[in-house]
Each structure stands twice: as C-alpha cells, then as structure tokens.
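Continuing the batch. This is chain 6 of the set; chains 1 through 5 are on the previous pages. Same settings as before, nothing changed between runs. Recording input and output for traceability.
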Amino acid sequence: HEVDITMSVDKRMSALCGECYSYGKKSFDIYISGKLSYKETMITLCHELWHCKQYYEGKLRDMGFGKTKWERKTYKDVAYSEQPWEIDAHKMETQVLGFWKRTKIGKTFY
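Output for chain 6:
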C-alpha cells in the first residue's frame, strides 16, 4: 500500500495555511505556507495529511467544477467552516500531532 506524498513550503501562499491535492488514491501534493510559525506549520501539515487519509480511504473526492464528494454526498458552495471534511481534519490535526510528538523521531523535534 505505497503512497506518494510530496510536500512543499511556499512563501507566496498568503490566504491559506495549506492545501492538499489528490491524484487518485495514492498520490498527493501538500503545500504549506512559508509564513507560518513552526507550531502552525506542524499543525497544518497534520491537517493536510489527514486530508490525504480521507482521500486514500475514499471518504473525500474532488469532483471538479467546485463540487466535493464526502462520504457519498456531494457538496457545492459550502462555507469552509461547514465543510464536513474540514471539520473532521480540524478535529484530528492536534491528535495526529500529539501522536507524532510521542514517537522517537517526534521527540527530537519537541
């Protein structure tokens, strides 16, 4: 079950903290704003990695033309704060970061 995730930090990003693009279920690009603090970068990375998991599991799918499919329901023109995939990712980002902090590698960064 190999997954390809490419992450880039972009100082030109100003309106967003991060973005995740899916190319099928196993290839993803994550872009993180280069204007964030270390802590904000790590939280954003965990948030975007959670989106990768949502895509991988088939829960989240970009349908094009501004439509997104989440758990078999199609959404269009939904405010960011009301998007169920974003609510889920915000709920999980600190849990994912907490898990990583407890790993051997994570402990060397915090």
